[in-house]
Specification:
It is built from 11 helices and 2 strands, in the order αααααααββαααα. A two-stranded antiparallel ribbon has the order 1-2. It is an all-alpha fold.
């Protein structure tokens, strides 16, 4: 039997980063390609038939390649954690470039978000479904259908952008402020910390079930189906809780004038 001469991951990283070995890069892409399918499958849950899974995978591969090229193998950071963020960001950038959300659906989402802002500002607490439905003049069934319709518009809300200086068009994703580009301006650090603190406070004010969904989805990486199994609720109910949580968070974050949502 021939010995397995395939190099290990550490060797592949060295070959790529120190010797610019393209073959090593290709092997790393193949090895980590499953991450793209994983992220695409999670996003696709929200998209129904609006976007093909293959389109997400195509954008994700670009993100994986970018992650491999920019990853510093000498730092004590797990590549999978770094790559998933880049892959998801690439998919979201692709969705934005497609402008895949219909104008009518985007308008419904804005109206619902505004209703949450108005009711919660008036009551000084989280609004119930009945209170938001009344604000919109809807019955419970109509409100449930509205939540289902706008679910697809909430998948990218925690990947908000910060505007450039003096209103310039170039924007930075909040996660990009965490990367080491040799130097980061003090104003960027302060801005990021302000937004991070605002988001943390907004999450802390969510109803318990919505807070749990946000934590399990964004911090633990569970799918909606897995979250449902964890807290004994249906996947559709988890999707509804996720949608309401994001609408509340968007409303809280929109109070910060410099945050583009």
């Amino acid at each position: 039997m021939k010995p397995d001469l395939k190099p290990d991951l550490a060797t592949l990283w060295i070959q790529l980063k120190e010797n610019e070995d393209i073959e090593a890069r290709d092997q790393l892409i193949i090895h980590f390609a499953h991450l793209v399918k994983y992220v695409a499958s999670r996003l696709a849950i929200h998209l129904s038939s609006l976007v093909e899974l293959d389109e997400l995978i195509s954008y994700g591969i670009e993100g994986l390649i970018d992650a491999i090229e920019k990853f510093d193998h000498k730092r004590n950071i797990k590549f999978e954690t770094y790559a998933i963020t880049r892959i998801r960001g690439s998919m979201i950038d692709g969705l934005r470039s497609m402008d895949w959300i219909p104008v009518s659906l985007r308008q419904k989402s804005k109206e619902l978000e505004k209703a949450y802002i108005n009711v919660e500002a008036r009551l000084g607490r989280s609004a119930s479904d009945a209170e938001v439905a009344e604000e919109l003049g809807l019955n419970p069934g109509e409100f449930a259908l509205l939540l289902r319709d706008v679910a697809a518009t909430t998948i990218i809300s925690l990947d908000d952008f910060l505007p450039g200086e003096d209103g310039e068009q170039k924007k930075k994703r909040m996660l990009d402020l965490l990367e080491d580009h040799n130097s980061i301006s003090a104003s960027e650090i302060v801005e990021f910390n302000e937004v991070k603190d605002l988001l943390a406070k907004a999450i802390s004010r969510l109803p318990d079930k919505e807070k749990m969904v946000v934590y399990l989805y964004y911090y633990e990486g569970l799918t909606l189906k897995e979250i449902g199994a964890t807290i004994s609720l249906s996947e559709s109910r988890i999707s509804q809780l996720h949608t309401k949580a994001i609408l509340r968070l968007r409303g809280s974050l929109s109070k910060k004038k410099n945050l583009v949502i």
